[in-house]
Amino acid sequence: MGTASFLKRAQALLRIRNQLARECLAELLAVFVLILITLSASAQMVTSSETKGNFLTAYLAGALAVMVAVYTAGGVSGAHLNPAFSLSMCLLEQFPWWKFPIFMAVQILGAFIASGAVYALYYDAIWHYSNGTLATSGPRETASIFATYPADYLSLSNGVLDQVMGTALLIVGILAIMDTRNKGVPRGLEPVVVALLVFSIEISMGSNCSCALNPARDFGPRLFTYVAGWGAEVFRWVEGRGRGGGWW
After folding, report:
1. What angle do the packed helices 83-91 and 215-225 form, to 10 degrees?
2. pTM
3. Which CATH number characterizes residue 118's domain?
4. How does pLDDT run across 22-69, given as a tens digit for each residue?
5. Residue 144: domain span
6. Are 142 and 47 in contact (CB under 8 A)?
7. Within a domain: residue 26?
8. Is residue 15 included in any domain, yes or no?
9. Can you tell me the distance from the alpha carbon of 70 to that of 20, in angstroms, rounded to the nearest whole number?
10. Is residue 6 part of a domain?
11. 220, 216, 26: which is closest to 104 by C-alpha?
12. How does pLDDT run across 85-115, given as a tens digit for each residue?
């Protein structure tokens, strides 16, 4: 009886009643889960020299990570996970503009924290693979574990078009899935269908820039690599780094 009473009091004390705080924490957790799985798959692929993973497994892990993340926060925050999606909801007047910068900051923070977790998880593997140097280019580079980089042949203008077109396709697909006037997805399976959408984009549009399609997914981890020792090169357009795994 005493233990049950204590647990109830603790639960009441820890319960978060502010709706915005609940949404932000849900979004933070969902993005953390998403990036943790996505970058871990990329780290496993890169540090094992693709003996324990390849582009297909990395893309599949990223798509499944989307599914898990949407299930994690969908009922609380709507599981935006992506500033581009939050912006689209604002433009469609389905999300208040004043929440947009808050959600964007939380999404970037979640991606940044997850990047630190992946770095800790694969710390020994990264340093072993890189021969003790955190390189952003070359045969032993590891920057592409965290952020996406363009293929050697890609021009800046083609890279912009690649990201705009891929992100637009993602948003259109999600809106179509959510539209109740369309042929409905069975209730509860929406995250699965979104994951399939992400996977289809990855395997069809991934060769140019590795399918970031999400400012938070790319900027958060990129910022982490900057402060963790890779240096300012992570923010420069450098040839020879176009292999990082990614998703939307």
Report:
1. 150
2. 0.89
3. 1.20.1080.10
4. 999 999 999 999 999 999 999 999 999 998 989 899 999 999 999 999
5. 20-235
6. yes
7. yes
8. no
9. 18
10. no
11. 216
12. 999 999 999 999 999 999 999 999 999 999 9
**Contact, 37 vs 67, CB < 8 A?**
no
Tell me which residue has tokens 């710390």.
Answer: 123
Residue 41 belongs to a domain: yes
CA separation for the pair 99, 80 (Å, rounded): 12
Radius of gyration of the chain (CA): 19
CA distance linking residue 92 with residue 86, whole number of Å: 10
Q: For the stretch 217-248, what's the b/e string if a residue is b when 16 or more beta carbons lie within 10 angstroms of its beta carbon?
A: bbbbbbbbbbebebeebbeeebeebbbbbbbb
Residue 162 contacts residue 33 (beta carbons within 8 Å): no
* Beta-carbon contacts of residue 141 (< 8 Å; ≥ 6 apart): 130, 135, 240, 241
Contact 173, 82 (CB under 8 A): no
